[in-house]
């Protein structure tokens, strides 16, 4: 496995490729994302351990969307059967994904625990959906400090887990090494990832403005249906984002020997026994 260093402009290409891939099978990828979120929401309802179990499923949900986008690239329809992708690649990989999930849940809960030391747990309760957000709460200094400190701690956690599911699935890397290689890959390609996230931020803001305008116009005609349409559009936008994650993985690591799971016509491709991305 070889780590590739890509130029900053590649970050914008990842966004474009993710959007283009999504529109090949928009309903299938949206449904796949919705099913992932629905499964996590249902599991979070279990008493005591539900929220932690839901957090532990996030790396698997990320992998499901990565594989769904890879299937789309190969001209195949991503189906709900991909929800079980982490359980169909052998016991070793299944255990590795379960361990990744446990690591993520512990890391996330630690971040929330540290934030609780600042504001008494108010931000954590709002973030986890147990307490509603109010204008008064948002203006409290302790709440804002907890929010920004949580974001600061969550960034390295995100870098650790960004590529880890793909490394376990496609390269059969042990969980601890996958976390390390993920962090290094993100750090070495930090400029590309900065462009990637800034580009997506621009897409989110522009789309949000358009959706707000359309919702305001439609609300007078169709009432509450307009709000439902906006929620559906937001879900599709989130599915687009997760469809682009596989491109960040594909371009940061050389292909596993003898595999071409992420092959695409044009652009940067994976080919068997390749030594890196080919322009």
From TrEMBL:
<keyword id="KW-1133">Transmembrane helix</keyword>
<keyword id="KW-0472">Membrane</keyword>
<keyword id="KW-0812">Transmembrane</keyword>
<protein>
    <recommendedName>
        <fullName>DUF2189 domain-containing protein</fullName>
    </recommendedName>
</protein>
<feature type="transmembrane region" description="Helical">
    <location>
        <begin position="52"/>
        <end position="73"/>
    </location>
</feature>
<feature type="transmembrane region" description="Helical">
    <location>
        <begin position="26"/>
        <end position="46"/>
    </location>
</feature>
<feature type="transmembrane region" description="Helical">
    <location>
        <begin position="94"/>
        <end position="118"/>
    </location>
</feature>
<feature type="transmembrane region" description="Helical">
    <location>
        <begin position="229"/>
        <end position="249"/>
    </location>
</feature>
<dbReference type="InterPro" id="IPR047798">
    <property type="entry name" value="BPSS1780-like"/>
</dbReference>
<feature type="transmembrane region" description="Helical">
    <location>
        <begin position="203"/>
        <end position="222"/>
    </location>
</feature>
<feature type="transmembrane region" description="Helical">
    <location>
        <begin position="145"/>
        <end position="164"/>
    </location>
</feature>
């Amino acid at each position: 496995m070889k780590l590739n260093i890509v130029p900053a402009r590649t970050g914008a290409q990842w966004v474009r490729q993710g959007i283009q891939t999504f529109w090949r099978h928009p309903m299938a990828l949206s449904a796949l994302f919705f099913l992932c979120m629905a499964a996590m929401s249902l599991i979070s309802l279990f008493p005591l351990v539900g929220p932690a179990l839901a957090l532990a499923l996030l790396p698997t949900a990320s992998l499901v969307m990565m594989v769904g986008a890879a299937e789309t690239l190969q001209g195949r329809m991503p189906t709900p059967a991909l929800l079980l992708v982490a359980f169909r690649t052998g016991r070793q990989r299944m255990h590795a994904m379960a361990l990744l999930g446990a690591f993520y849940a512990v890391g996330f809960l630690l971040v929330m625990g540290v934030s609780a030391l600042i504001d008494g747990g108010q931000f954590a309760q709002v973030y986890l959906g147990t307490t509603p957000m109010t204008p008064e709460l948002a203006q409290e200094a302790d709440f804002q400090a907890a929010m920004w400190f949580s974001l600061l701690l969550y960034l390295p956690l995100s870098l650790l887990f960004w590529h880890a599911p793909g490394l376990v699935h496609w390269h059969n890397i042990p969980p601890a090494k996958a976390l390390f290689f993920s962090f290094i890959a993100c750090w070495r390609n930090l400029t590309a990832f900065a462009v990637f996230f800034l580009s997506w931020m621009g897409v989110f803001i522009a789309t949000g403005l358009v959706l707000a305008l359309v919702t305001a116009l439609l609300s007078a005609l169709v009432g509450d249906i307009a709000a439902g349409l906006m929620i559906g559009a937001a879900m599709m936008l989130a599915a687009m984002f997760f469809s682009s994650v596989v491109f960040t993985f594909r371009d940061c690591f050389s292909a596993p020997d003898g595999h071409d799971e992420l092959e695409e016509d044009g652009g940067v491709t994976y080919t068997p026994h390749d030594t890196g991305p080919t322009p």
